[in-house]
Design brief:
Layout (H helix, E strand, L loop, with lengths): L1 H15 L3 H6 L1 H13 L18 H14 L1 H18 L4 H11 L6 E4 L11 E5 L3 E11 L7 E8 L4 E7 L3 E3 L2 E5 L14 E11 L3 E5 L3 H8 L3 H24 L2 H26 L5 H26 L9 H14 L4 H13 L2
Parallel strand pairs: 1-4, 2-4
Antiparallel strand pairs: 2-3, 3-8, 4-5, 5-9, 6-7, 7-8
The chain binds flavin-adenine dinucleotide (FAD).
């Protein structure tokens, strides 16, 4: 696995780094980059080898996520949606669905997204599923699905009448079939990762056949999963903090200003400590939820501070739309809220207040 991590780092530095701003804004550039990952069989990393993946450990996968986020927010975000879908499929009891999709997912012959973050919202479910003879009838609004025109399908989360969560595969296309339809919005005009073609969807009486069901989980599983995986989105933030540090270091070397180097030294120490703690907490089952939550908030805080330092050290040129500092600053904004729960919102906002 060391080899995989090493070759990925080399590819990111040699091939992707110089294209990161283009990849952030242009879907075609992003398409080429994700296909290059597919060509290297890097798109089903956590899927067991017997199901066509790489069988990578959770920690190795997260360390790789840091390296990806350090180089390109758009690429790391897009490929994560696909890798999440692949992991969900690999854990499914629906063997024929696995056979249909999984073997093609590692190489990117088939790309799949997810749309289930709305299950975290409290109150009336945004997407409901009603059991029928052939499967489920799905209706509702999906606020976020990344990857239109990259992904042919996505795994949708919907709520059954008794509160259980249904996950099933739908086409990521505008469709009208029998009496049902899927209507996608135009790709959103996003400040960061605009190239990822993130859309929302209106689903009306869509018939999800039983054969397309990935899993049915108990009510509130999403909240338990958000707690269990509280560190996950923090790895993006850590990668983003390193991206800010890289820009700061380059500015320190170019401008030969001691205080820039001193700032890098001090921030780099904090980021290294945060990464060390994250590795520690991720590998010890005894780590508490609140320890991990605080560390996630620290990673978000570091992404914000390091990207701000990158902006200041880059001077006026940081305002160019195509500047690396501006891109990383916008990515820090995205990674401050991605996968947000109420606890994460509270912990990360409290760190801003205590850092005044
Ligand atoms: C660019 C982009 C792409 C994305 N792509 C995907 C994707 O492909 N698939 C996917 O599943 N998700 C995707 N997301 C969703 C992403 O993970 C969410 O941003 C994140 O989960 C926060 O959700 P939200 O913005 O919808 O906020 P909300 O869910 O509205 O709020 C976040 C938290 O605050 C709480 N909250 C909100 N409003 C209230 C209120 N009135 N009272 C009390 N509590 C409240 C919620 O319960 C929740 O815990 C994407 C997001 C972005 C920005």
């Amino acid at each position: 696995m060391e080899d995989k991590l090493h070759s990925l780092k080399e590819w990111l530095t040699k091939e992707i780094k110089s294209r990161a701003n283009e990849i952030d804004r242009d879907p075609q550039a992003l398409k080429a980059a994700i296909q290059e990952m597919g060509d290297r069989s890097l798109l089903a990393l956590k899927v067991p080898i017997e199901l066509g993946g790489s069988g990578m450990s959770e920690l190795d996968y997260r360390l790789l996520q840091v390296e990806l986020a350090r180089i390109s927010g758009a690429l790391t975000f897009l490929q994560t949606q696909h890798q999440s879908a692949a992991v969900m499929l690999s854990k499914s009891h629906n063997v024929s669905l696995q056979q249909d999709f999984l073997s093609q997912m590692a190489t990117g012959k088939l790309l799949m997204g997810v749309g289930f973050s709305h299950l975290r919202r409290r109150g009336i479910p945004m997407v409901s599923a009603i059991e029928t003879d052939s499967g489920y009838e799905i209706s509702g609004e999906v606020p976020w699905i990344t990857g239109y025109d990259f992904f042919t399908h996505f795994i949708l989360g919907a709520t059954l009448a008794d509160g259980r969560e249904l996950y099933g595969v739908l086409p990521l296309k505008n469709r009208e079939e029998q009496q049902g339809s899927i209507s996608l919005s135009e790709p959103m005009k996003l400040m960061a990762i605009a190239s990822t073609n993130t859309v929302s969807a209106r689903i009306n009486h869509w018939c999800l056949n039983k054969a397309q069901v990935v899993s049915i989980k108990p009510a509130e599983s999403i909240h338990q999963s958000s707690r269990n995986n509280i560190l996950n989105h923090g790895w993006y933030a850590l990668g983003c903090a390193y991206a800010g540090l890289d820009i700061l270091l380059a500015a320190a070397q170019e401008k030969q200003l001691d205080f820039l180097q001193e700032s890098w030294n001090s921030l780099n120490l904090e980021v290294e400590q945060c990464k060390g703690k994250a590795v520690d907490l991720a590998t010890h089952d005894t780590a508490s939820y609140s320890q991990k939550l605080q560390l996630r908030a620290t990673a978000i805080n570091l992404a914000q501070r390091c990207s701000q330092a990158a902006i200041i050290a880059s001077s006026g040129a940081a305002n160019y739309l195509g500047s690396n500092a501006a891109r990383v600053y916008r990515e820090a904004l995205l990674f401050s809220v991605s996968g947000q729960t109420t606890d994460v919102m509270e912990a990360s906002i409290k760190q801003i207040i205590s850092n005044k």
